[in-house]
Write a structure and sequence with these properties.
Strand content of chain A: under 5%
Helix content of chain B: over 70%
Largest sheet of chain B: 2 strands, antiparallel
Structural class of chain A: mainly alpha
Structural class of chain B: mainly alpha
Number of strands of chain B: 2
CATH topology of the largest domain in chain B: Cytochrome C Oxidase, Chain A
Distance between the termini of chain B: 36 Å
Oligomer: heterodimer
Shape of chain A: elongated
Order of helices and strands of chain B: HHHHHHHHEEHHHHHHHHHHHH
CATH class of the largest domain in chain B: Mainly Alpha
Largest sheet of chain A: none
Number of helices of chain A: 2
Strand content of chain B: under 5%
Radius of gyration of chain B: 24 Å
Strand order of the largest sheet of chain B: 1-2
Number of domains of chain B: 2
Helix content of chain A: 55-70%
Shape of chain B: globular
Distance between the termini of chain A: 59 Å
CATH architecture of the largest domain in chain B: Up-down Bundle
Number of helices of chain B: 20
Largest interface: A-B, 27 and 37 residues
C-alpha cells in the first residue's frame, strides 16, 4: 500500500478519533482516581504556605 | 548581581560572551553589504556590554553557602523591569501604528516608520518583549516556590533572560531595516530563530533540572502550564521556521514549505502561539498568583487538570480555522472549526475556576486593584475564548475574516486577558521580590486598573463596530448583483473607529506608564519595611521540613 495523501487522511480521520477518546478517558480516570484526591487537596493548599526559602 | 554568581559561573559567562562576540564579529565582517552586518554589530555590542558588567563584578566575593540555600530571584527582578520596559515600547508603537491608520501621514516619510514595518515592531514588542519577559520572570519565581527548590545554577537563568532579550532586539531592529520572513508572529529571520532555539532549550532544561531537585512531591498545576508553554513553543518555533538562507552572509531565507502547506504550517504555528504562548503560560501565572493574592486555594484542582489536558490536546488542531474558504481541503477546515468550538469547554473551565476561587472574597476584589486586575483578566479570558470559538465557525468567519473584528478579538485577549493578568501578577510580585510591604501607591495601581480597563473597552468596542460594518459593507450587493460599496467607501466608514481605537490604546499606554512609575518608586522607596528580614529566615529552618511536606 502506498503512503499517499488518501492513506494519511484515512488514518487520521479514524485513529485520530480513537486516540483522542482514549486520552480523554485516561485524563478523567487520573483526575478522579480516589487515591489522588488527598494529593490534589494538599497541592492546592500548599502554595499558600510560607514560602520564603527552599526546603532542605 | 554578579556577586550572586560563583567564580566558575563568572568564567563561563565570559567564555560564552566571547563566543557570542566572535559570532557577532563574523556576521559584521561577512555581511558588510547586508542587514545581517548591522545585526552582527548589535550582537557584538550586546556581548561586550554584558561582558563589561561581568568584568566589573568579577572580583566580588563569591556567594556563601547561606545565600545559595535561598531562592534565586535576581533574574526574576530584572525580568520584571525588562517586561515593563518592553510594555511601554510595544504599546507606544501600538498607539503609533493605530494612529497611522487614521492619519497616514504620520510616517513622516521615513521608510522604517511605514505601517508594514512598525506593525510587527508593535506585535513583537508586546507579545515577545512584554509577555515573554513576564512569563520568564514569573515562571522562575513560581517554579522555585512550588517545588520548594532553588534553581539548579545561577548562570542558565541569566543566559535565558539576556539571550531572549537579544532575540527580541534582533527581531525588532530587523523589522525597522525591512527584514521579515512575512510570517505572522514569526517574522524574525533564520539566524535569530536559531539563537532562540538555543535559548529555549536552556530554558526548558532549567525547568527539568529544578523539577528533579524538587522537595514537594506533587508538581503544582501552574508548572504544567508553564512547561507546556516552553515545550510546545519550542516545537512550533522549530517547525515553522524551517528555512534555507540565501547564504550564511545573507539575512534573507526561504521557507521549506510552499503554497497551502506553508499557510497551514504558519497557522498551525500562529494559532498555537496564541494557545501556548498567550494562553498556557499566562494560565500558569493565573493558577499561582490569583489564589496566592486572594489567600484562597483554587476552587477545584481537578477541574484545573482536566482543563489543562483539554487545552493542550485540542488547541493543536484548531489552527486551520484561520484558512476558511482557501485552498486548504474542506475537511481540514471543518476539523479546525470543530476543535475550536469544543475548546470552549476547557477554556471556560479555567475561567470559571478562577472566578469561583474568588467567590467569597469579593470584598478583597473590591478593595484590592491588584486582585481586580486578575479577576478582570479571567472575565476577558472567558469572553475572548467564547468569541474565538464563535468566529472559528465557517459561516461567522465569512463575515469576520479580514475585518477589524479579528483585530478586536485579538486585543480583547491580549489587552483584557494577557496584559491584565501580567500586570496583576507583577503588582503582586514586586513587593515580594524587593521585600516591601506593599506597592509604593495603591492609588496608582487603582488608576492603572481603570486606565487599562477603559482603554481595553474603548478599543474592543471600536473594533467590533468597525469590523462588523466593514464585513457587511463588503458583502452588500445592489439590484444588478454587483458590490454596493467600493473598498474606499468602507475605509471612510472606518475612520472614526480608528480614531477611537487610537484613544483606547493611548489610555492603555498611559496605564502602563503609571505602572512603571509605581514599580520604580516601590523599588527605590527608601526605608521600605523589609518584611522577611530576620535571623529566622537567614538561617536554614531548624525544624525538620519533612514535617511540613508531609502534613
Amino acid at each position: 500500500m502506498d503512503l499517499d495523501y488518501q492513506t494519511v487522511v484515512a488514518f487520521s480521520k479514524s485513529w485520530g478519533l480513537f486516540y483522542m477518546i482514549a486520552l480523554a478517558i485516561g485524563v478523567l480516570v487520573y483526575t478522579f482516581w480516589p487515591r489522588n484526591k488527598k494529593r490534589f487537596d494538599q497541592a492546592k493548599k500548599s502554595i499558600l504556605d510560607k514560602d520564603d526559602k527552599p526546603w532542605n | 548581581m554578579i556577586a550572586g554568581l560563583t567564580k566558575a559561573e563568572r568564567q563561563l559567562s565570559l567564555a560564552v560572551l566571547t563566543v557570542l562576540a566572535l559570532c557577532g564579529l563574523a556576521f559584521a565582517a561577512i555581511g558588510r553589504n547586508d542587514p545581517i552586518g548591522t545585526h552582527g554589530f548589535i550582537i557584538l555590542l550586546v556581548a561586550i556590554g554584558v561582558a563589561c558588567v561581568v568584568i566589573a563584578g568579577y572580583y566580588a566575593p563569591e556567594p556563601d553557602k547561606e545565600q545559595l540555600s535561598r531562592y534565586y530571584d535576581d533574574p526574576t527582578r530584572v525580568g520584571i523591569i525588562l517586561s515593563m520596559a518592553w510594555a511601554v515600547f510595544g504599546l507606544f508603537f501600538g498607539v503609533w501604528v493605530a494612529a497611522l491608520l487614521a492619519w497616514p501621514e504620520l510616517t513622516f516619510d521615513a521608510g522604517w516608520a511605514s505601517f508594514g514595518r512598525i506593525r510587527p515592531v508593535h506585535t513583537t514588542g508586546v507579545i515577545f518583549g512584554f509577555g515573554g519577559n513576564a512569563l520568564i520572570a514569573t515562571s522562575l519565581h513560581v517554579l522555585q516556590r512550588t517545588t520548594r527548590a532553588r534553581l539548579p545554577d545561577q548562570f542558565s537563568p541569566w543566559f535565558v533572560l539576556i539571550g531572549y532579550n537579544l532575540f527580541c532586539i534582533l527581531a525588532v531592529s530587523g523589522y525597522f531595516m525591512g527584514l521579515t520572513q512575512s510570517k505572522e508572529y514569526a517574522e524574525a529571520e533564520w539566524y535569530a530563530d536559531i539563537w532562540l532555539v538555543i535559548v529555549w532549550v536552556v530554558y526548558f532544561l532549567i525547568y527539568i533540572r529544578t523539577l528533579q531537585r524538587r522537595k514537594e512531591p506533587h508538581i503544582y498545576v501552574a508548572n504544567w502550564y508553564y512547561m507546556a508553554f516552553i515545550l510546545v513553543v519550542a516545537i512550533l518555533h522549530i517547525v515553522n521556521n524551517l528555512a534555507v538562507p540565501v547564504s550564511f552572509g545573507h539575512a534573507k531565507s526561504y521557507s521549506l514549505f510552499s503554497g497551502v502547506q506553508d499557510a497551514m504550517t504558519q497557522w498551525w504555528y500562529g494559532h498555537n502561539a496564541v494557545a501556548f504562548f498567550l494562553t498556557a503560560g499566562f494560565l500558569g501565572m493565573m493558577y499561582y498568583y490569583l489564589p496566592k493574592r486572594a489567600g484562597r486555594p483554587i476552587f477545584s484542582y481537578r477541574l484545573s487538570i482536566i482543563s489543562f489536558w483539554g487545552i493542550v490536546f485540542m488547541y493543536m488542531w484548531a489552527g486551520s480555522h484561520h484558512l476558511h474558504y482557501t485552498a486548504l481541503p474542506q475537511w481540514v477546515q471543518t476539523l479546525g472549526m470543530t476543535f475550536s468550538v469544543v475548546l470552549l469547554v476547557p477554556s471556560w473551565a479555567s475561567a470559571g475556576n478562577a472566578l469561583a476561587t474568588l467567590n467569597g472574597a469579593w470584598g478583597k476584589v473590591r478593595d484590592d486593584a491588584t486582585l481586580r486586575f486578575m479577576m478582570v483578566a479571567a472575565v476577558f479570558y472567558g469572553l475572548s475564548t467564547f468569541e474565538g470559538s464563535f468566529m472559528a465557525i465557517r459561516a461567522v468567519n465569512s463575515l469576520s475574516h479580514y475585518t477589524d473584528w479579528t483585530v478586536g478579538h485579538v486585543h480583547a485577549g491580549a489587552l483584557g486577558w494577557v496584559a491584565m493578568i501580567s500586570f496583576g501578577s507583577i503588582y503582586a510580585l514586586v513587593p515580594w521580590m524587593w521585600n516591601r510591604e506593599r506597592m509604593y501607591s495603591s492609588k496608582l495601581v487603582e488608576l492603572h486598573f481603570w486606565l487599562a480597563l477603559a482603554g481595553t473597552v474603548v478599543y474592543v468596542f471600536a473594533m467590533w463596530n468597525s469590523g462588523i460594518i466593514q464585513g457587511l459593507m463588503w458583502r452588500t450587493y445592489n439590484e444588478s448583483g454587483t458590490l454596493a460599496y467600493s473598498f474606499i467607501d468602507s475605509l471612510v466608514a472606518m475612520h472614526p473607529y480608528y480614531i477611537a481605537r487610537t484613544l483606547g490604546g493611548l489610555l492603555f499606554l498611559l496605564g502602563a506608564l503609571v505602572g512603571c512609575y509605581n514599580i520604580w518608586m516601590t523599588i527605590r522607596q527608601a526605608g521600605g519595611r523589609l518584611v522577611f528580614q530576620g535571623p529566622e529566615v537567614d538561617k536554614p529552618a531548624l525544624t525538620p521540613p519533612a514535617l511540613q511536606a508531609g502534613e
